[in-house]
Specification:
alpha+beta, six-stranded antiparallel β-sheet, 4 helices, 28% helix, 26% strand, globular
Length: 174
């Protein structure tokens, strides 16, 4: 049992040490480091009383930065989605790859990111476990610009849909 915890600790420390810098166009929020908890938790901002409303998304520049890390293979991919449809994927396996999609390909993602449901998401949800993927979504203009979740968390449907759209776009760049 102690050996298992040592292996998990070594993997977590290794992942933390391998983290690269954020792309130049990333929102300025500090990256979050996952920490194990006993059960899925949502962290909210103390003193917040009003329900969040949908935030307008930028017409130019970076729309969203999506960072996926972890897993047995040690994935560390960052997808930057620009408002003009430019997709840039940076991974630990090589330099950045870029492609461009039309606005129709971004329509559902833009709709989800601009929704009141997405604006109401807590900034962090975690569960303990090894070899899980961690998903970090940064959107400028939100009260909490970064949403972090991981495998094993029962996410609100809007977050699962956003991750599915981002995974689809990530697949287009490879």
């Amino acid at each position: 049992m102690k050996l298992r915890w040592l292996v998990v600790l070594a993997l977590l420390l290794g992942l933390a040490a391998c983290g690269g810098g954020a792309p130049a166009t990333a929102p300025t929020a500090a990256p979050a480091t996952p920490q194990a908890t006993a059960a899925p938790t949502a962290v909210s901002t103390p003193g917040a009383t009003a329900a969040p409303t949908a935030a307008p998304l930028p017409a130019t520049g970076t729309l969203v930065v999506y960072h996926k890390s972890g897993g047995i293979m040690g994935i560390n991919d960052t997808l930057t989605v620009a408002a003009d449809g430019t997709l840039t994927l940076t991974s630990r396996k090589g330099g950045p790859s870029t492609t461009k999609v039309d606005q129709a390909a971004l329509h559902r993602l833009v709709e989800l990111l601009g929704s009141a449901e997405f604006a109401a998401l807590p900034p962090r949800a975690e569960v303990p476990g090894a070899d899980q993927f961690v998903y970090e979504i940064s959107v400028a203009g939100r009260a909490q610009p970064t949403v972090l979740t991981m495998d094993g968390v029962q996410n609100p449907p809007v977050l699962d849909e956003v991750i599915a759209e981002l995974e689809h776009l990530r697949g287009l760049v490879r």
